[in-house]
Amino acid sequence: MVNTVQSLDMATLDRLADKVSALVQLLEQTRTELAETSENNVRLSNELEALQGQFAQSQDDGLEMQTLLDEREQIRARITEILNQLESLNL
């Protein structure tokens, strides 16, 4: 009877040890995944910051281009006006 109880207890302890080992392995895997995820978050945050900088620069460039186009149109209108005045002088 004592031998049966000991083998039952040993079998229970073996299953418990297996479960603890599996849990430790799962914990290690979770830590590894967490570290990878943290690294990815840092990398993606840096990429996002760089893209936001590029976007802001693009907006600034777009505004500058529009300003230059407006100035060009003003110059064109002024030159047209000057040419019309020269034509009306009949030199």
Termini separation:
132 Å
Return residue spans where pLDDT drops below 50 for at least 5 consecutive residues: none
Average pLDDT confidence is 91
Beta fraction of the residues? Answer: under 5%
Assembly context of the chains: single chain
3D shape: rod-shaped
User: What is the number of strand segments?
Assistant: 0
Helix share bin: over 70%
Radius of gyration: 39 Å
Structural class, by secondary structure, is: mainly alpha
Order of helices and strands: H
Main sheet: strands, sense, barrel? none
Number of helices: 1
Task: Summarize the SSE layout with pairings.
Blueprint: H1 2-89
Q: How would you briefly describe this protein structure?
A:
The protein is mainly α and 91 residues long. The protein contains 1 helix and no strands. The model has no long low-confidence stretch (mean pLDDT 91).
Structure characterization notes:
97% of the residues lie in helices and 0% in strands. The protein is built from 1 helix and no strands. The mean pLDDT is 91.
